[in-house]
Specification:
The structure is a single chain. By secondary structure, the chain is α/β, with parallel strands linked by helices. The protein is built from ten helices and eight strands. The strands form two sheets. It has a six-stranded parallel sheet with strand order 5-4-1-6-7-8, with helices on both faces. A two-stranded antiparallel sheet has the order 2-3. α1 (about 20-30) crosses α4, α4 (about 70-85) runs parallel beside α6 (about 120-125) and α5 packs across α10.
Length: about 240
Amino acid sequence: MRLILFDIDGTLIHINRGGRAVLAAALTELFGTAGPIESYSMAGKNDALIIRDLLGAAGIPPAEIAARLDDIYEEMGWRAPAIFRRHEMRPCPGVPALLAALQERSDVLLGLLTGNNRVTAPLKLQAAGIDPDIFSLAAYGCDQADRNRLPAIAMERARALIGEPIQPTDTVVVGDTPADIICGRSAGALSVAVATGLHSRETLAGFHPDVLLDSLLDTDAVLRILTTGVVVSAGT
C-alpha cells in the first residue's frame, strides 16, 4: 500500500490569503489583536506554531495561548466559510484530475499532511471544490507543532486504518515549501515538491527534494511518480 500525503495550501489549492484572513479575524475577536500577522510568513508552518508566534509577539503569555488553542480553532471554523467564499479559493492546476485518478487505485491510501488545524482544513478544501472525504486520514498542525513529526502520526493512523504498518519507503509527502521537503526527507519518505505555491522552483531545488515538479498538470506522469517513485517527464 502506498501512502500519499498532500499539503493543502499552495499544493492542492490556492487560498488567496483566505487562511490569513480567517486567523486574523479569530485572534482579534478572542484576544483583541492578531499580532504582526500582515508581515508574518506562514509558509510551511503549523497553525499551533503560527498562533504562538503571533500572540507571543503581542505579549500574550504562552500558557494562555496553549490553554485557548481549541477556542481559536473553533472561532476560525465559525468564521471560515464566509471569508473563504470572498477569497475565491480554487484548486491548483491539475489537482482535480490527479485526485480522481488516485481515487481509482486500490493500492493507494490518500491522506493530508498539513499545517492547518482539523477544523479549518476540510473547510478550505470544500471552499476550493475538493471533497475532504476522499482523504482517508490526516495529520494536522494541531496534532504537533513540529511539522517533521507529522509523517509518523500519519503513518500510525494509516496502520490503524488498514491493520498493517506503512513503511517510510512506501510514503510520499507532496508539498510546495522547503518545510515540506525537509519534513518528507526527515521521515524517510519520498519528497515531492511542486512549485505552485509561494516558493520558486529555484528555491525548492536548493532543498533537494527527490522530485521537483512545476505543477501537477501531467496526470499520467505525476501518477506514476507518486505510486512507483519512478521519475518520468512531468515538468521536472
